[in-house]
Write a structure and sequence with these properties.
Layout: H1 2-22, H2 25-42, E1 47-49, H3 61-69, E2 73-80, E3 83-88, E4 93-95, E5 101-103, E6 115-119, E7 122-123, E8 129-130, H4 136-143, E9 149-154, E10 174-177
Parallel strand pairs: 1-2, 1-6, 6-9, 9-10
Antiparallel strand pairs: 2-3, 4-5, 7-8
Amino acid sequence: MKESHKSDFRKSCIKKLEFSSRFSKFYKDKKTVKKLKKFIDANNSKNVLLYIPMEMEVNVLPLINKLRREQKNVFVPFMVDDSFKIVKYRLPLQKKKFGIKEPKNSFCLQKKIDLAIVPVVGVDKVCKRIGFGRGMYDRFFYRLNYKPTVVFTQLTLCKADKVLTNEYDIQADYIITN
């Protein structure tokens, strides 16, 4: 039963995000990226996991470029099997499974990430992530042997008033939106 509520909530959030991403997206992106940068600076984060944005997600590419100019280590997901590994962000990007762009696969000495900025479709009452339903982030964080600070980000906050997630779904330490 919980899964159907989660699925219905996911669909309504995606509709809301698709609508909102057509209007004032540039402004919302800029405002959210500014808050994310402030958070990174305040926490003195050096190794940051970000993501290559899809259309309805916060465009963090300007943030990635800024952090790289500041000599920070910027990592992004590279899909492997049912999850992903982290690789250093570098160009060129290639469109892969699910239409997600990724850099080429590279061997990366596994640095511990201080901070993970994770896109969400929505969050439930206890600030656990509702994503696209493939569980890649959940499996990635479950397999880590440490816990970085996790920040969820979204163009427009979509939050449920009840618990829709399972014990294995990742939880935010912070949520940053416009």
